[in-house]
Amino acid sequence: MAKMRLRTGNNRLKIEHSILDGVRAMLENLLKDRPEIRSVVPGRIAIVRDARGPVKVRVTVPVTNGWKAIGLSDGARQELFISTTLGREELEAALKKAAADV
Fold this sequence. Notes:
Helix content: 25-40%
């Protein structure tokens, strides 16, 4: 039986498995105001000690169609693959604004 894929945010946030609660709210805010972000695919979740307090997102490396980022929330980190035409600085500013609204 095939795994059902769900999407939200005008079909741009792929929800195939778990998303950290704070990170999900931040991503929904991000997609609401940014049409130049084509899609966000959340990846692996890992438990870490430095993920306390408000949601934080760090853009790490460029990928073929955008950027890889790390979301920190609820004592865990989650990989985020963001398909976008935005440059690194623009994306970091958009993520910071979206996280502030959570």
